Amino acid sequence: MITQMMPERREGPVDPMPKAPSPPEEGGGPRRPDTGSPDKDSLMKRMKKVDPKQAERYRQRTGQ
Amino acid sequence: MMRLFGIETEYGITREDLDAVDPVVESMELVRAHLTASFERRWDYGGEDPHDDARGFRVSGLQQDKEEDDFAKIDAHRPFSYHEMKSDLVLPNGARFYNDHTHPEYSTPECRTLRDLLAHDRAGERVVQRAAERRNRTLGGSHVQLYKNNTDLHGHSYGCHDNYLVSRSIPFPQLVAGLLPFLVSRQVIAGAGKVGVEAQESGFVPGQYQLSQRADFMETDLSVDTMHNRPILNTRDEPHADRAKYRRLHLIIGDANMCEYATALKVGTTQIVLDLIDRGGVPPLELADPVSAVKQISRDPDLKATVRQKQGPALSGLEVQEQYYLAARRMLAGADAETDWVLGEWGETLRLLAQDRSQLVGKLDWVTKLWLLETFVREERIGWDDPWLASLDLEYHNVNADRGLYLGLEAEGKAWRMTTEADIEQALSAGPHDTRGGLRGLCVRRFPDQIKSMQWERIQFSGGLKGKTLEMGNLFDPTEVKACAEIFERAASPVEAVAAWSIRKEPQS
User: Is residue B15 in some structural domain?
Assistant: First the structure.
């Protein structure tokens, strides 16, 4: 189950290269995953909508 | 060591309303859909020659040349020119966006910091997706989909290349010896994860989860080729800088990462290993069979597989990484803030991979994708050979925010971020202020009608009688870059700016 596997909330890492402060609502440094309330239904719904045959049809030419 | 890096990403592209997709047309149309919001500049191909080999010789041909010639014959009958097909754009942020080998490719401007690199890598996702949305409006439906991945899961791979400016004073054999074990094992951090096993042109075998998208396609230790006989370390000697002073390390082994954390560690740890090589501090490791080792490590998500050294005990990928990490910590701790951040996160990531990888969901792609797939397998009660999993693998990399699995995870706040939306928007509008990439973007914004041609190390301007070319093959000192940018900001014309910059440079030359 997603809820059982999500990592625990921890303090964020140090910003490697501090810069001018960003708007307060967005914060200025790295943000760790918000693992407090995983919306399993939303993600599973998105996954279930994927066509099982999608990869079968997907073809590309070799690139670099 | 001077730090400068950038990432080139070839995106997968498809049309969901067609049974047979022409990738040449679709890639061209996608790039050209961007034109409504940018400027078209003819790219100067004079600086590109993939036949020079860093081992000190020049090859007469690449293995891909015949295939390229065959495609060129077909393309010659198309109702558009070579330049139209390539649709080479330089964007206002100094990035390059074009159709490369039938894939839309976004090359970030050159960056000096990981924060800038992440913002520009994410900006690339937005550029291609916004171009797809414009194209889809023309087509009348959400038909074009783009994937930031490296395989079609049918044996065809395409690349995400990380590039680094390196001093030519480091002998190439020293670079090779220092990098090979690191690159073989880097996938434990930077792998994007893949369902199944494949090889070039030989199809797809489902059922096994791998760390890396590219491992199956590595065929040799060293090679100048990039499309066939792919090497762990590409030897192309195309510096895009003063050849007497610099190399460009062009790494093609890497996966395209969705996780910002994985991108930061991929590039950050590689830069640190280059610093270690420069100081003669790499651990004394030499793998017996690097190509086999890449595949062995990739095909064991439990990270227990060991690979043989020429001398000494067999080591797991984690153990190889740990040796590099410990050497780097001993020699480079305290060097600067970014190095210290990378060292701290590198060590913590290796610890968590060994002890509790669930804490790396949202930070490392292979861990995140595996977590999603394991959850889905349990919920749907399907086997690991179910083709649905390959489709989920593909959709993890979709850059359409309404569909992509990773972007869905990120929208729910479960992915580690260093960038903000403001950072990404800023990266869409301008390049880094301290690199020639930012200067390139500035010229596109200020003098869109006076640029004759552009490439990585040179801009040619039209108009005036002399001083029409801005040479940037030695323009890497951030102070110099900023001084040059100030001149181009103030000048009435680019010819005036080039003349003023030449006068400023004269006393130094």
Answer: yes
